[in-house]
Design a protein that fits this description.
By secondary structure, this protein is α/β, with parallel strands linked by helices. The protein has 13 helices and 16 strands.
Length: about 400
């Protein structure tokens, strides 16, 4: 993918290159710094094909400076051809993922900018501004670690457990440790390439790619089937056209991206790794061997344990929300809570976008949460609220 973005057959690890950056994401806490860098670059128009500015970290409880940013930053980005979201629309990743093209390279000013399509390399505000203005970004190509899944999901095991299975297997093999002293981390600074789950939905794939930020990866890719990508892009085309109809700017940029999605659908092609590709390491995850949930224990996302190891541990609060979730998680949670009576712990429900919240209300899912929350132990809050509290890990 990086080679294609450089006009080359491929790029070897350690090579200094400058790939074309097709998609750039800026979020509101670093957006003002990106804006200042763009001014220094005398950027009057973006050369990256799509640049998006979100307002997810400061929407719910803005400080005076945040209110000023929310008023001024949208016009700054839109007048340069960028796509400006509105405060409270939702988490940057949930939106940026809906604007991606397969097999292209991107970047973003949020550590969780981890694309389920193509590949992304998160960066600081200066490099984000550089990529947006020039449409390319300097990169020292990292090594890759291949994570290969085989087998089938076992009863009671969900995709969230598979996310945690990656560090769990690495820990069993001595390739990852939890203690900060003399820490071992096979993934640190490397690209995690995942394969063996071709039927996965793109929305589900993001659970795996997003979590690579917690592994300290430089980037990630996941090999998906052509049909699931087609389904995803068709939905995204409709979404982008709806944004234009609702007055979102820049309309030309949004429609250009929708047209490129349609162009890909007319002739779908996906890149694959070379059969003789070399990796810094290969980790095999046997799904048949994972017969119980795997959970992340406090206070480190690498500190994963089997559910049986945590049996009897006290739970005070449960949080379902923000950038690591999709709408299916809320439906599943509601199914568990149906008829169960009031919950006995404090439960926070926080969908990643207003679209998801609206859909869940229409389906009656919020009614189930309300019934479980008698006594205010189940709280449904706006997506941006949890981000402000620090629960969205971006």
């Amino acid at each position: 993918m990086v080679g294609q973005a450089c006009g080359l057959p491929g790029v070897r690890p350690g090579t200094s290159c400058e790939p074309v950056i097709a998609t750039v994401g800026s979020q509101d806490t670093t957006g003002p710094m990106t804006r200042d860098e763009l001014k220094e670059l005398a950027c009057l128009g973006f050369n990256a094909d799509l640049v998006m500015q979100s307002f997810c970290h400061t929407a719910a409880y803005p400080k005076p400076v945040d209110i000023t940013t929310q008023k001024e930053l949208p016009d700054f980005f839109a007048t340069r051809g960028g796509v400006a979201l509105r405060p409270g629309d939702g988490i940057i990743h949930s939106w940026l993922n809906r604007m991606l093209l397969p097999d292209t390279v991107g970047t973003g000013g949020d550590s969780h900018t981890r694309f389920p399509l193509g590949i992304s390399f998160p960066a600081g505000s200066g490099l984000v501004a550089f990529a947006a203005a020039l449409g390319a970004m300097p990169l020292d190509m990292p090594e890759s670690v291949l994570v290969r899944f085989r087998g089938e999901l076992q009863p009671g095991v969900t995709l969230r457990d598979i996310v945690n299975a990656i560090p769990w297997v690495a820990m069993q093999q001595g390739k990852l440790t939890v203690a900060s002293a003399n820490k071992i981390n096979v993934f640190s600074g490397r690209i995690m390439e995942m394969e063996g789950l071709p039927a996965l939905k793109v929305e589900q794939a993001f659970e795996l790619t997003d979590a690579t930020a917690e592994r300290s990866c430089a980037g990630c890719t996941i090999k998906l089937g052509e049909e699931t990508i087609k389904e995803y892009l068709r939905s995204n085309i409709a979404l982008l056209k709806n944004l234009v109809a609702r007055g979102y700017q820049d309309a030309r940029t949004i429609l250009r991206r929708a047209a490129k999605m349609e162009q890909w659908l007319a002739d779908p092609q996906l890149l694959s790794g070379d059969p003789d590709a070399e990796y810094a390491d290969v980790i095999e995850v046997d799904l048949n061997a994972i017969k119980e949930p795997i959970v992340a224990a406090p206070n480190d996302p690498d500190n994963v344990k089997l559910m049986s190891e945590c049996a009897g541990d006290r739970i005070d609060e449960v949080f379902i929300g923000s950038c690591m979730t999709n709408i299916g998680h809320y439906r599943a949670a509601a199914k568990v809570l149906e008829g169960a009576g009031p919950v006995k712990v404090r439960l926070w429900i926080c969908p990643p976008t207003r679209m998801d919240e609206k859909q869940l209300r229409e389906e009656g899912v919020y009614g189930t949460f309300a019934a479980a929350g008698r006594g205010r132990r189940c709280l449904a809050v706006p997506c941006a609220w949890a981000t402000r509290r620090g629960w969205a890990m971006g």
